Amino acid sequence: MSVSGPAAAIDLKGIDKRFGAVHANKAVSLAIAPGTIHGIVGENGAGKSTLMSILYGFYQADAGEIFINGAPRKIVRPSDAIAAGIGMVHQHFMLVEPFTVLENVVLGAEGGARLIGGLTKARTELQRLGDAYNMSVPLDTPVSELAVGVQQRVEILKALYRGADVLILDEPTGVLTPSEADHLFRVLDQLRHQGKTVIFITHKLREIMAITDNVSVMRRGEIVGTVATKTTTPQALAELMVGRTVRLKVDKAARAPGPVVLDVRELSATDNRGTTRLRDVSFTIREGEIVGIAGVAGNGQSELLEVLAGIRRRASGEILLHGQPLDPAHTDPAKLREARCAHVPEDRHRMGLVMSFSACENTILGYQDDPRFTPHGLLNRTAIAADTSGKMIAFDVRPGNPQLRASLFSGGNQQKLVLAREFERDPTLLIVGQPTRGVDIGAIEFIHKRLIAMRDAGKAVLLVSVELDEIRALADRVLVMFDGRIVGERGPDASEQDLGLLMAGIAS
Amino acid sequence: MESLDTIAQVLASTIRLTIPLLFACLAGLYSERSGVFDIGLEGKMLVAAFAAGAAAAVGHSPWLGLLAGVGTSVAFALLHGFAVITHRGDQIVSGVAVNIIALGLSAQLGSTWFGLGGQTPQLQPEERFLPLTLPGADAVAGVPVLGQIYSQILSGHSILVYFAFAMVPLTWWVLFRTRFGLRLRAVGENPAAADTAGVSVNGMRYAAVVCCGVLCGFAGTYLSIAQSAGFSRSMTAGKGFIALAALVFAKWQPVPAMWACLLFGFLDAVAIRLQGTALPAVGILPVQLMQAVPYILTVALLAGFIGRATPPKAGGVPYVKER
Amino acid sequence: MSARAAELPWWADALVMPVLNLALAFLVSGGVLLALGEDPIECVQIMFNGAFSSGSGIGYTLFYATNFIFTGLAFAVAFHAGLFNIGVEGQAYIAGLGVALASLYFEFLPAPVIILLAIVFSAAFGAAWAFIPAYLQAKRGSHLVITTIMFNFIATALMAFLLVNFLKPDGDMAPETRTFAEHARMPLLQDVFGWFGLTMAQSPLNLSFVWALICAAAVSLLVWRTRLGYELRTLGASPDAAVYAGMPVTRLTVIALMISGALGGFLALNEVMGSQNRLTLEFSGGYGFVGIAVALMGRSRSIGIILAAILFGALYQGGAELAFDKPNITRDMVVLVQGLVILMAGALEHMLRPTVGRLFAGCSTTATAQEA
Questions:
Q1: Which of B88, B238, B302 sits opposite C147 (nearest CB)?
Q2: Which one of A159-173, B146-160, B263-277 scores highest in mean pLDDT?
Q3: How many beta carbons lie within 10 A of that of residue A254, not counting itself?
Q4: pTM of the model
């Protein structure tokens, strides 16, 4: 897209970047008009974050040029980008937790060898910025004590304090409630009015439609289209993102649920720091139904999964499995697996798989006590390999080599490996967290079908996902979590607005 | 009055024994606050002690000794930095290597160069840092308590002693009141945040490692040309590790570091003083027990029996941009 | 980044890299020898001949290698479980008490029983000394590296205290126990060979060497072929996955470190029971620290550890010969070389990797190009 009138605020030409075998950016060219909000959408792994990290000097491109306001700039480290008037708010905040807000803001822009001058100047300037953009933050509180939404404001202030004219936001709403997100959008709108340029990276089409002027779509390291937001639709963008027509609906026959499998009563739990993250949560799951837990990330879903999987101790409350109460002192993952509860964890890199282990060694993870695999405490490699091969065929894991290291499979195939391990044990209760995070569209369809098949086979399924579309497509009942509580229950046909208000903790 | 004299002697010896610990502990503080763990304090002290002893003997000047000691220690610190910052090697393994290289190199060079079985030649008084008498110390020596404190405990130490204590507030000021300190602590807590804020993580860590080398150089120099009159084999005798223990004990804070070093120095002084002396009701206190107390105290602290010690968050982890 | 991502073939990782790093360490050592006015080539010849050219030399080399096999295995087992046991030195030192207990206080028993007891006691004492840091790490999250360093020094103080106050015979000046009875020692291999009418050169090489080889095989089996080994490796590779899989993480941590301590403890069999025949001050002599280098060079595999241990053994024995032949050189030179090997093979192991990786990548592209 050519920009007429003033020179593009940012003009990337032929940016190319490889990480080993992964071609993250393929000769990407992108021009961004000054004073606009420019959205960049794409699936996970499409190369959006890499492109922005190159613009910010965090990575270096293998080839390509960067022009800022029409002039070529060499950006080899973040300080170059800052000097060129670029600020970035990373997906994972770049804040030093024990430092105060003030210290975090001046870090790297102290304005002198002694701190005192810079701190004083920053204090005045931050108060001015806070008033101007309606973003007040407590300046002398350690960042670790601030809520996520406030931390994000600190990040934006940090960029503005450094005089950023271009602000990059990488997936800024993933950790925000809808109302916090609205506040962010108002701030961004104000910035646009002041002539600042905003690059907004997301995979949520709704946000693109709500806030941006122009939008570029990335797929597999390439920009596949740039359009004015007014002239496009979410469907059109979605098709561009995945390269073909997407069906967001899954075929699902009506099914009458059977007896209660899991009965959770007034469950409470704390996180590792001792903060209460789960408050008096009660619900049941029956045979043959999928209960979906919707909510913004960080509202207690992770803790709920961990408590039900036996990884985290509950503070109080009861859990009944097939009517039998689970003794809190003896609820551990091994015991629960014995009781035929399968668990697909939220984070397969951290928990579900050992990346340096072969597929074989990963298929016995959690089932290492099974005498078929470890008779007399010795590994039966033949039996394990045979079992793994079978599972790989059943779940279409490619390449189907049981000796291959887990890290060498794609995200979708890694996830299928975890699902195969957990589904094929014929569990009665299935606890599933974020089943399609970082998984390509083809694998998503496969995984969704399998989840429905488990439900149709009479399993009780608990599905936790931050993807509202996924919850609405799969769940028979939707529970919404906010601030550690279940704030409402809806049917699968509940509207997005309705669920959104619940997720924000506004309605009940 | 004799018991007062004894106390004064023990306290004066406490101060002398504290100095190498204090230098090394502050050295470790700079390094570890920047995220570079350093169990090689011992080795750097040792090579510094050797270099200082050798240079002072050859060049007939304590200042030349200090220069050589600091220079050698900084070179070893840079070696550690090269391994763990530039090449992201394991910080513990690198520290072990530095200690062993220092042990072998100092003894081998000492034997070859001076032929004294690993020692450096006995230093003449003018080749050493000698005790200074503070103004008026002799005049007030007769005044009970206050005069004694001034003349016997505070006066009569070498310039390095006063410098070591001056380093405590200076280190505090540098860490918490300057740009350098803010950046140093930032790369030790969250290097990615510092990087995105335009701070060079590797540059800061190298700077911190050099600070560590300089102070270890002072520690070693003090041992061989202020406390003793020359270098002898393995003369650090685990002091680098006691300094490490003190650093943990002080929870990586400068002023508590001074108190921890004084405590451990005091224990050492008492152990020396009590050697073979029977105490009422206790009998002869085994000297080995006294020597083990710093380590036992540190383990107890780490076990959470006396407070909690939280190391800098990014300590021990090489900085790799995530991918 | 891309250079680091380059994967080496397994054999390059296991063979080429250690050899290259070793060569670098020797190169630097050669430089030091030159600076000391010695001819490095001649020194290498003296060392090699000293270590391998005579039966007795080989015996000494393998005797020292025995120490390094034990400490290398000890470090490796903990390392598989993601634990950095820098306390092998202290664990081996304390295990000397176990050996002395068997050889001094059970000397009324027949020799095979004493040996068996010594094995059990040394393992038990070594494991016990590893237990406290292990427990503190597992239960209270205390930093294992620091606690084990502290325990090394506590062991030093404790052993000195015991030797001076209790174990030294009355009237003796030297802080060491009395010499063990003939039958309460580990049989020398030359004597064992003698029983079968075979002759072997004089050296302190004893049955501990055979026990070290058995231990190496057992460790290999444990780590790669058993459920416990699988669990330890899972814990080492991903602690969160181990929790998810319902593994008893606390117990595994303690078990791994106690096995490690027991293996390190066997050092006392070789040194105290096999060679010095009495418990002395500081008999563990730094072998525990070198074990870290042995394990790293051997890539934590038993075969690699045995090879690396023989290399270090040869360095020890050859270094002793060198110090004997060259008045200018002391055994400290060997300490220096060891330090350099730890530096190159351990701390700087990534330095040459990208270069070698590019070389291999270059080779394979050329090969593909030729095929096409």
A1: B302
A2: A159-173
A3: 5
A4: 0.88
Tell me the average pLDDT of chain C: 90
Whether A333 sits inside 8 A of C244 (CB atoms) is: yes
CB atoms within 10 A of CB C364: 11
CATH number (1.20.58, 3.40.30, 1.10.3470, 2.30.30) of C55-357 reads 1.10.3470
Helix (H, G, I), strand (E, B) or coil at A140: coil
Q: Which residues pair with C9 in a beta bridge?
A: none
φ, ψ of residue A41 in degrees (nearest 5): -115, 160
Is the pLDDT at C45 greater than 70? The verdict is yes
Which tops the pLDDT comparison, A5 or B203? B203
Of the two residues C252 and C13, the one the predictor is more confident about is C252
Buried b (16+ CB within 10 A) or exposed e, C309-330: bbbbbbbbbbbbbbbeebebbb
Q: Hey, what amino acid is at B303?
A: A
Q: What is the pLDDT of residue C29?
A: 93
Confidence of residue B320 (pLDDT cuts 50, 70, 90): confident
Q: Tell me the CATH number of domain A10-242, given options 3.40.50.300, 3.40.640.10, 3.30.870.10, 1.10.1040.10.
A: 3.40.50.300
Span B2-305: which CATH code? Answer: 1.10.3470
Domain edges within chain B: 2-305
Taking alpha carbons only, the member of A294, A282, A283, A284 closest to residue A258 is A284
Question: Residues of B with CB below 8 A from A78's CB?
Answer: 195-198
Contact B245, B264 (CB under 8 A): yes
Q: Which residue of A has its CA nearest to B174?
A: A114
Of C161, C164, C343, nearest to B83 by CB-CB distance is C343
Q: B9-30: per-residue pLDDT in tens?
A: 889 899 999 999 999 999 999 9
Q: How far, in Å, CA of B319 to CA of B285, rounded?
A: 48
Closest CA to B39 of C148, C297, C81: C148
pLDDT 10s digits, B217-244: 999 999 999 999 999 988 998 899 999 9
Sheet with A222-228, edge to edge strand ranges = A86-89, A166-170, A197-202, A37-41, A214-219, A222-228
> What is the CA A182 to chain-centroid distance, rounded?
19
Report yes or no: B118 at the C interface, CB cutoff 8 Å: yes
The answer to whether residue A113 neighbours chain B at the CB level (below 8 Å) is yes
Cα nearest neighbour of B182 on chain A? A107
Measured in whole angstroms, how far is the alpha carbon of residue B233 from the centre of its chain?
18
Chains sharing 3 or more CB pairs under 8 A with chain B: A, C
Q: Out of A333, A369, A378, whose CB is closest to C225?
A: A378
What per-residue confidence (pLDDT) applies to B291?
84
Of C142, C164, C328, the CB nearest to B112: C328
Tell me how close the Cα of B251 comes to any Cα of chain A, in angstroms: 14
Res. B118 pLDDT band, cuts 50 70 90: confident
Are B298 and C161 inside 8 Å of each other by CB? no
Same CATH fold, A258-340+428-508 and A10-242? yes
**DSSP tag of A506:** S
| Residue ranges for chain A with pLDDT beneath 50 | 1-3
For chain A, give percent helix, strand, coil, nearest 5.
35, 25, 40
Q: Which residues of A touch C244 (CB under 8 A)?
A: 309, 311, 333, 343, 345, 351-352, 365-366
Query: How far is the alpha carbon of A421 from chain C, nearest alpha carbon, in Å?
Result: 12
Residue C372 above 50 pLDDT? no
Name the residue with higher pLDDT: A397 or B137: A397
The domain at A258-340+428-508 falls in which architecture? 3-Layer(aba) Sandwich (3.40)
Confidence band of C345 (pLDDT split at 50, 70, 90): confident
